[in-house]
Amino acid sequence: MSAQGNRRRVALAEERRYDEVLDRDTGWPVSLADFLGNASYGAIIDEKRVALENDLIEGRERFVCPDCDQAMVLRSVPTHDKTEDRFYFRHRLDNGECSGRKGLSPAAICARKFAHAKEGAQHKVLKRLIEESLAADPRFSNTQTETRWKDVDGVRWRQPDVQSVWQEQRVAFEVQLSTTFLHVIVERMSFYRRNAGVLLWLFRDLDPSEFKLAEDDIFYSNNRNAFRVGLDTLERSRQEGRFVLHCVWHEPHLDARGVLEDRQSEALVGFDELTFDISPSGVPRAFYFDYAGELTAAHEKRERDRQQAIAAQDQALREDLENAVLSFSKLNDGNAEWQALRGRFKVRGFELPEKLYSDAGPFYLLQAAYSAKHARPVACGIKNLMGLANSLFNLHKDTLWVLSVMLGHFDRRAALEANGDVNGWKKKRDQYREGWFQGDPAFEPNRRYDPLLAFLFPEAAEKLKRSAGQTERFRRQRLASKQAGSQ
User: Fold this and answer.
1) Among 45-49, 83-87, 248-252, 319-323, which is the least confidently predicted range?
2) Alpha carbon 435 to chain centroid distance?
3) Cα-Cα-Cα-Cα dihedral of 10, 14, 17, 20, to 10°?
4) Count of C-beta atoms within a 10 Å radius of residue 301
5) 3-state DSSP: the chain helix, strand, coil percent, rounded to 5?
6) Strand residue runs (E) in 51-153
7) pLDDT, tens only, 62-121
8) DSSP conformational letter for 28
9) Which residue segment(s) compose the domain that 185 sits in?
10) 194 domain residue, yes or no
11) What is the pLDDT of residues 217-269, one digit of tens each?
């Protein structure tokens, strides 16, 4: 007989009416598969079936129907060859009909399920822990358990597990033990917000990796914070004279590629360290660690770091091109060093010629700009700024706008007039200004390299991008207004 018993297999009955029972001690539903576990046939008979019946005989109704709240037992049907027993749940007193859900709306069924969880032994223990923790903190007053909180409309109400008043702020504490529908969670959030209260959900265990969906609903909407009370937190509450909770939270971390990784942290924290607010999506939150704020800060820091890296690369490009112009030599023009610099500028979006000294390229524009910056002619043998200005006027009139803007930007009037025929230059200056004013093609600025010049001289970019003709018209208007005012 024992040999035959050891060979008997265990399975779930194919035709069964009840897939789970409610464990009153924990407030959690237990599936048939979880109830049986991996136990052998003999262990199931001894430790499950007979033990369950014995509890009922002695008046302990721990496992009950989640619908009608009546005691449940474990039964089985053997196969014809008696090599396998197929187990199932049934009511202890089974008249063939469970009326637990008859005539009930989905909301009423949900409310009953929620009530079952509240009746569990573990639920009662946690409520007691909350009460005693609150009693340790003199800043809480009027603590009540399972009493109604009326809505502002005077009709509806809620009955939180525990409620109290924190420095004139009414607080509801709800213990989350069972799988609760999302609409129940959100309805409670909405109720307490509408009634000028705040809500704190308390969990039985704090392992986010093991959270059920209802716990995830609370955890993630709670700015990725979860709280619990226990004997350890109660002891700390009494020691410190303040309500202490165990908190677990996620912290966001961005790697160099911007990939987000959440790392878990935990600590014992005081109720007075919590923040109660409303999320951007309108959901009430209670949290110790500001995950959303830290994530925003992390993204902003990463963007700052990215911009700083780009700025450093851009500055290196500016300096290298400036050095290339300052050290220009026709003998080395177009060498490997220049080609490498061209490649770097191409990546940045700027096309430079194969050789710097090129009529179609930006050579004379760069010469005008850097000469103004350094207050001396560069990339040529000309001795002074006046000589360079005359040369550009005679041979490269399309560079005069850049020369004029950059001389003004770097305040090089004194350097320009230090050598050469000043009056002669002023006549040429008036000539190209008239050309801009009239729109003379001979003095039309070279706009092909405006983006490059704006990149190289960001402080002067807005001036460089202005219209030469419009700028001259404004200059004349200001001069006329000034002369009129002096008369």
Assistant:
1) 45-49
2) 56
3) 40
4) 11
5) 50, 20, 30
6) 63-64, 72-78, 84-91, 140-145, 149-150
7) 888 888 888 888 888 888 877 888 888 888 887 666 765 555 555 555 555 555 545 567
8) -
9) 110-289
10) yes
11) 888 888 999 999 999 999 999 999 999 999 999 999 988 788 888 999 999 99
Distance CA 181, CA 33 (A): 23
| pLDDT of 116 | 52
Whether residue 275 sits in one domain with residue 402: no
pLDDT of residue 4: 41
Is the CB of residue 130 less than 8 Å from the CB of residue 162? Answer: yes
Cβ proximity of 284 and 267 under 8 Å: no
| 407 CB-near residues (< 8 Å, 6+ apart) | 372, 385, 413, 416
422: tokens are: 């000043």
Tell me whether residue 347 is in a domain: no
Residue 83 counted as domain residue = yes
Domain final residue pick, 272, 289, 306: 289
Residue 322 placed within a domain:
no
361: left (phi over 0), alpha (psi -120 to 50) or beta: beta
